[in-house]
Design brief:
disordered N terminus; alpha/beta; 19% strand
């Protein structure tokens, strides 16, 4: 339908005159740059400016005279946002825009599975294509710097290598649908508190080694067709028109040929927007309807840009450079023929969401309870009564949290998933235990749940404890939610503790019944003062439409847990680097004083024991590592070759994530003790062994030298390789000295 609307002149020419003389910009067989150059030559200055800014909340205009279509964006990165009114945030009331909510990106990262990332990208790309969206606003790869960041659940953890590796397949598969990814939020957007005014200060090593690599990999290896610039500032300039990071690094050093899109409302200065890297401006706090569409003319890349060109302050060449990038984005997406039709909320997508969720769930602890029996997996032939406690066993989590809020046909709650899995084999009873946030709405999408409660806090705890006394197993579902001050865009967390007196409830439950397991629904680490008393802990994340089924699959052993943490859980917030150094602040100046020591790098550097380490995750089986091979010399192709044998020594099929860390000994410049440089997820039947091989390019072993502004390897460098099941669980470390 869209093609018939946007190409009337072309179709008429074909119908009346036979084979037309097709302009170069319409010929998809020609090189992209040639098509862009031809289109620019046919456009007026006003038409070039028009395509650089929004015409509604989520769309920008094309060039109707030339049959160049408008561009439609949609929020992600976990699902396709419901349709909103032309110039409002509230939903438009469509009845056919319910999507599949996929697990949050923390869960995807916790799978450590590139194939699952590809499945995620393929599935969400098909949903975007079906809804005729041209740009999916995701994935997010901002680094987990502080557990307070309200938007951590949208990102891929604390390690740049892991985030980079996991975002590439997602990007590639989305774009096979003719839908661009918009890699975000570039960059240094590592907190939500005062995100519009926070001016980040950090050294070049931290910038290049920690905060840029995932973006670089998403651009150069993933090939993302667009990048979203962040809200915050760097070197006194907002990221949406930041000369250094957009022009010098992104478009210069990395050779990015796509379009830079502003975060909604992220552009602030007409001169800088015109002069520096911004190509496409959205959301600059206007009301197009009340102003009868004229407000969009006041965008920084609209009438103000035209005025600066006429005054000679901006050249037509500068305008053409921006317009060319937007045209490339249009040609790659909205104007691309032969795209798949896509599908929305299909059985295949729901199954993908269920699979990704189950494989991302992390078994943090599974020690024998007082009875001497492990809680997980719950064996239904050994239990008669299961008590489920906690608001998060019922509360919908697809609604809320900011721009990633979604509308689904149905969200399977943990309680619903458990009931479906148990059937009539055991009794399942429920107690509320605590009241968190009974509401459930965002931008006009409502959960439809009535979570009102008349009982007092003490009564809720007493009722739950009474029910726990005669249960065979107690499953507590708590954690965070997507309300303000928790896992939510626009604000950071209020504190590191569990809210709503959950700690008190957990301690009372485990005192009443030692077979109590804690199932945490959250996108962030939390304090666990009860960790030693509780025999089993499961990190369940936000798993989307199929959350309850994914969780039940793991709890009852249909799926053997294989997730590994993508970030470190500190014991207390003061153990986290930014907080330990007193540099987490909501002020206008944010100093990343911890430098390159983020996450596990910090904990090892300061010899601080974490609550749960980066890369940690248990299984219902056991894995043995052996036969380590480490090539002592860099091969002619510049790669380091490693190998090991992994054996499943238990009685269940399972998957293990083998992690390779490398540390330089006696470096010229101080470096972390070790850093993740490779990983692989391997599936093994009981008793089965497999040899896992790795090839690590020499470039991955380099560090960034700020004096020479280059990546270097020290002369006579000596490294140590760590074969590990987690950053704190090294299984072998044969030395090598590459030459």
């Amino acid at each position: 339908m869209r093609l018939l609307k946007i190409f009337p002149a072309v179709f008429l020419t074909v119908a009346c005159c036979g084979q037309p003389d097709v302009p170069a910009y319409l010929d998809e067989n020609r090189p992209l740059d040639e098509r862009v150059e031809d289109a620019l030559s046919r456009m007026t200055r006003e038409e070039k400016v028009a395509i650089l800014h929004a015409q509604s909340k989520f769309s920008s205009p094309g060039v109707p005279r030339l049959g160049i279509p408008e561009l439609w964006t949609t929020d992600g990165p976990h699902g396709i946002r419901p349709e909103v009114f032309w110039d409002e945030w509230d939903q438009a009331g469509w009845t056919n825009d319910s999507c599949t909510a996929f697990p949050a990106l923390t869960c995807l990262a916790a799978s450590w599975d590139r194939e699952l990332s590809a499945l995620y990208g393929k599935s969400i790309g098909e949903e975007a294509r079906y809804r005729e969206k041209d740009v999916l606003l995701g994935p997010g790869v901002n680094i987990y710097r502080t557990p307070y960041n309200g938007r951590n659940f949208e990102y891929m953890g604390e390690d740049p290598y892991l985030a980079g590796e996991m975002c590439v397949p997602y990007i590639q598969e989305v774009q096979k649908n003719g839908v661009a990814t918009c890699l975000k939020h570039y960059c240094l957007n590592n907190q939500e508190c005062n995100r519009h005014i926070a001016d980040v200060s950090l050294d070049d090593r931290a910038l290049y080694e920690i905060y840029l690599p995932a973006f670089k990999k998403g651009v150069q290896e993933g090939g993302s067709w667009s990048v979203m610039a962040a809200y915050n500032l760097y070197k006194g300039q907002h990221l949406c028109h930041n000369q250094y990071l957009l022009d010098d690094v992104l478009k210069g050093e990395w050779g990015f040929d796509g379009a830079v899109v502003s975060d909604w409302g992220g552009a602030h200065d007409s001169d800088q927007a015109a002069a520096y890297g911004l190509d496409l401006e959205f959301g600059t706090w206007t009301d197009g309807l009340a102003s009868k569409g004229k407000s969009y003319d006041s965008y920084h890349l609209a009438q103000p840009l035209l005025e600066r060109i006429k005054e000679g302050k901006v050249t037509d060449a500068q305008l053409d450079a921006k317009a060319a990038r937007v045209l490339k984005l249009i040609f790659r997406t909205a104007m691309k023929s032969g795209k798949p039709f896509g599908s929305l909320n299909s059985p295949e997508h729901l199954e993908a969401a269920r699979k990704i969720g189950a494989e991302g769930i992390v078994l943090l602890k599974n020690d024998p309870a007082a009875s001497g029996v492990k809680v997980f997996p719950v064996e239904l032939d050994q239990v008669k009564k299961i008590l489920v406690v906690g608001e998060n066993a019922l509360k919908m989590m697809t609604v809320g949290g900011g721009s990633s809020s979604l509308k689904v046909q149905h969200e399977v709650s943990p309680m619903e998933g458990l009931l479906a899995a148990v059937g009539d084999r055991a009794e399942v009873v429920y107690e509320r235990g605590y009241v968190g946030d009974p509401s459930g709405s965002y931008n006009g999408v409502t959960s439809g749940q009535d979570l009102s409660e008349s009982r007092s806090e003490d009564q809720l705890i007493d009722d739950a404890v009474r029910a726990a006394a005669d249960a065979d197993v107690v499953l507590f579902f708590g954690g965070l939610n997507k309300s303000g001050g928790q896992d939510c865009e626009g604000c950071d967390r209020n504190n590191y503790s569990l809210p709503y007196e959950q700690d008190r409830l957990i301690e009372a439950l485990v005192a009443a019944n030692p077979r109590t397991a804690v199932c945490l629904v959250s996108g962030n680490a939390v304090a666990m003062p009860w960790v030693d008393a509780v025999p089993a802990i499961l990190q369940c994340w936000y798993c989307g439409s199929q959350a309850g089924n994914s969780i039940a699959d793991v709890i009852f052993g249909k799926v053997n847990p294989s997730g590994k943490l993508p970030f470190t859980f500190p014991v207390q917030i003061s153990d986290s680097p930014a907080h330990n150094l007193g540099v987490y602040t909501c002020g206008a100046k944010v100093d990343y004083k911890e430098g390159i020591y983020v996450g596990y790098r910090w904990f090892e550097h300061k010899d601080i024991k974490p609550l749960f380490a980066f890369g940690h995750g248990l299984s219902y089986t056991e894995f043995e590592y052996s036969d380590f091979v480490c090539d002592r010399k860099l091969c002619q192709n510049g790669s380091l070759h490693l190998a090991l044998k992994v054996t499943n020594t238990g009685d269940r099929e399972g998957k293990e994530v083998v992690q390779i860390y490398v540390g330089e000994e006696n470096p010229v410049l101080e470096r972390p003790e070790k850093e993740l440089k490779a990983f692989a997820k391997v599936s093994l039947a009981p008793g089965e062994s497999k040899t896992v091989k790795f090839e690590i390019p020499a470039s991955e072993l380099a560090y960034f030298n700020p004096d020479s502004h280059s990546w270097v390897l020290d002369p006579d460098h000596e490294f140590k390789v760590y074969f590990a099941a987690a950053s704190d669980d090294v299984r072998g470390s044969p030395p090598f000295t590459p030459s």
